[in-house]
Design a protein that fits this description.
alpha+beta, three-stranded antiparallel β-sheet, two-stranded parallel sheet, 7 helices
């Protein structure tokens, strides 16, 4: 799966070209046109370097993972969802592709609002 994702790498420029709309789970032509006009190459460094580790205050944070379960990216991200579950994170599932913020906006917003409300009450 990873080989397919990175098949169009422009390594000499440190970027990869945007994936296809089908890969992102976008089938609506109007949304596809809107998204295509805004997509840009993606920096490869985001795949090659780990996120920075925070200080002691990060231990007390609540962790959540939103797993998008539709489309060709599902097998790739299922690994991360399983790892999050194993580490005790809250895992939410949405039947959407990788651009869930465009295809299931309301459902995603409800999860994020609930997480924010719960955080402020803690």
């Amino acid at each position: 799966m990873r080989r397919e994702i990175f098949s169009d790498i422009a390594a000499d420029r440190g970027v990869r070209q945007p994936p296809s709309l089908a890969f992102l789970g976008v089938s609506d032509p109007e949304l596809g046109d809107w998204l295509t006009a805004r997509m840009t190459p993606h920096p490869l460094a985001t795949y090659n370097y780990p996120a920075p580790v925070g200080g002691a205050e990060i231990v007390s944070l609540r962790y959540s993972y939103i797993h998008c379960t539709a489309g060709p990216t599902t097998p790739l991200f299922a690994t991360f969802a399983n790892k999050a579950k194993a580490m005790g994170w809250e895992v939410y599932e949405l039947a959407a592709g990788h651009v869930v913020m465009l295809t299931l906006l309301r459902e995603l917003a409800m999860i994020l609002i609930n997480l924010a409300v719960h955080d402020t009450q803690a």
